[in-house]
Amino acid sequence: MKLIETLNWRYATKKFDSKKKIDSKSLELLKEAIRLSVSSYGLQLYKVLIIEDPKTKELLRAASWNQSQITDASHLFVFCSYKQNFTEGVDSYISLLQEAAEESNHSGILAYGKSIKENISSMEDLERKFWSEKQVYLAMNNLLIAAAELRLDACPMEGFEPEKYDRILGLGDQGLHAVLVAPVGYRAEDDSAQFRKKVRRSTKELFEMI
Question: Which stretches make up the Nitroreductase domain (predicted)?
Answer without folding.
Answer: 8-186
